[in-house]
Amino acid sequence: GQNIDQPTEMTATEGAIVQINCTYQTSGFNGLFWYQQHAGEAPTFLSYNVLDGLEEKGRFSSFLSRSKGYSYLLLKELQMKDSASYLCAVLDSNYQLIWGAGTKLIIKP
Amino acid sequence: GAVVSQHPSWVICKSGTSVKIECRSLDFQATTMFWYRQFPKQSLMLMATSNEGSKATYEQGVEKDKFLINHASLTLSTLTVTSAHPEDSSFYICSARLERETYEQYFGPGTRLTVT
User: Looking at chain B, which residue has its C-alpha nearest residue A45?
Assistant: First the structure.
């Protein structure tokens, strides 16, 4: 079966750095997405990785290792507005998105 | 670019009635759209894949006769919840897929349905 694992909840301090991990086992791989979802709102696109390595986009970076079935989202200089759920999703061989359950990130002052 | 709208943003209806939710891609054409449902504090659950000009593909456990999907044009898909019951109360979100190499999905703002 297809499976995506990420921690249920994480807590971090404003101004700090946090890394949210995602491991996956899917039938085929055509890329990995990270989305941010604030409570009561729809998800918004953060990043896409299809090749191994680190993609940096401002305060957010996303890393992928296809051989390990592993990705992480790195958030730097945390702000209170970063409190949200972060969803990892993998595009499988049929170009269907397989979603993780999401990681709720709580930022404390 | 890649803006998706959804209407209505929230709706309250009585048990037994039907509710239609519209999903529109405003600045691009979407051959494929998706309908998700999300209960409080839970993850997204894919309900169905909507294909322009053909029948929708429903996920296991989703009743196609209860959740009617129509994708009549490249910019509009509709979800009709028929004979709604209180357990259908949820946050319904649509997304439209960009048909390019990344196949990323852009989400509408969601529709909060409450059935009384």
Answer: B106
Question: CA neighbours within 13 Å on the CB side: how many for B38?
Answer: 26
A12-71 residues touching B, CB cutoff 8 A: 30-31, 33, 40-45, 48, 50
The pair phi, psi for residue B60, each rounded to 5°, is -60, 135
- Mode of pairing for the β-strands spanning A60-65 and B19-25: unpaired
Beta strand pairing call for A44-49 and A32-37 = antiparallel
Identity (one letter) of the amino acid at B1? G
Q: How far apart are the first and last CA of chain B?
A: 37
Token couple for A69:
């079935």
Nearest to A42 among B46, B103, B108 (CB): B108
Q: How far apart are CA B101 and CA A31, in angstroms?
A: 10
pLDDT digits 0-9 by tens, B52-102: 888 899 999 999 999 999 998 889 999 999 999 999 999 999 999 887 767
- Quote the CA–CA distance of A54 and A71 in Å, as a whole number: 9
Edge-first strand listing for the sheet containing A60-65: A3-5, A18-25, A70-75, A60-65, A53-57
Average pLDDT over residues A39-53: 92
